[in-house]
Amino acid sequence: MSDTSVPDAKVRQMWHLLEPLHAVLYYAPEAFEEAAALGYEVGERWPSYFAWRAAPLGAPGATRVASAFYSFNPAMVAQHVPAAWQVASPDAVLAARLRGVDRAYRALFGDVLDGPEMSRAADLARRAAEAVHVEGRPLAAANAELPWPDAPHLVLWQAATVLREHRGDGHVAALLTAGLGPADSLVSFAAIGAAPLETFASRGWTRNQWDASHQLLAGRGLLDDDGIATDAGRALRAEVETMTDRLATGPWRSLGADATAELAELLGPLWVGVLGSGLLPSVTTLGIGKV
């Protein structure tokens, strides 16, 4: 009988391995070309980002997208949604994002896409993704409801997307449990050194909003006057990350420890390929490598 227990460290490792494979969509030139063909402005990444990520929800408005994405200033979200659906329908966006990922993966991985390792990785990742529980997880549910593509590399990408949104939805639950609102989640994360302040500015919060959150968290004893996390602040963020890991355990427990370890080994060369391509920024608001 195979071991189904999967430690928190392995759950977090799987996120670290899968996140870059998903994030190619937001940075690859092939994806930007597909977005431009639909009519989106591609001088910056946000018009296509909001379209790509929100399209599985249907044609949501700004309130629903801000709620699900959580860390973005709602005013920033409102600059892109629902205007995104006036450029292209969600169905057209979903088709274009698969075309973009297909082209990007072919450029990144070449003949590897046709090898047995890709097929095996796709099979294992899909099994994990199909095991997610989507109750209370809007982005995971929306992506899990989409039809599976045929090509193994697109199956892998879609599975990675379901799994990362499943983890992200759980992270929001952990933040809410900790009493950290959208801006607070970033201020408290910056306070432990997860990324430079300018990285978090990408989420659109004003200086006044950032300062108000700082004052609120300082009043809770979580930050000092310089915006650095206190011992209590670090402990709370550690609790958030631990809860996030545990809420993300389900699909890996279903897949089993042996198969999860096999998938991790198969994903390693792909992970190296994405990171080595230079497509992705070295520092993000996710704090990978810091938590």
Please describe the structure with a list of short key phrases separated by commas or semicolons.
disordered C terminus, 291 residues, mainly alpha, globular
Task: Summarize the structure in words.
It contains 16 helices and no strands. Helices cover 67% and strands 0% of the residues. The protein is globular, with a radius of gyration of 19 Å. The longest helix is centred in the middle third of the chain and has 26 residues, at 152-177. It has one domain. With 291 residues, the chain is mainly alpha-helical. It starts with 7 loop residues before the first helix and ends in a 14-residue tail after the last helix.
End-to-end C-alpha gap: 33 Å
Helix content: 55-70%
Query: What's the count of strands?
Result: 0
Q: Overall pLDDT, averaged? A: 94
List the topology elements.
Blueprint: H1 8-27, H2 29-38, H3 46-54, H4 62-69, H5 74-78, H6 84-87, H7 90-109, H8 116-129, H9 138-144, H10 152-177, H11 182-191, H12 197-200, H13 207-219, H14 231-247, H15 250-255, H16 257-277
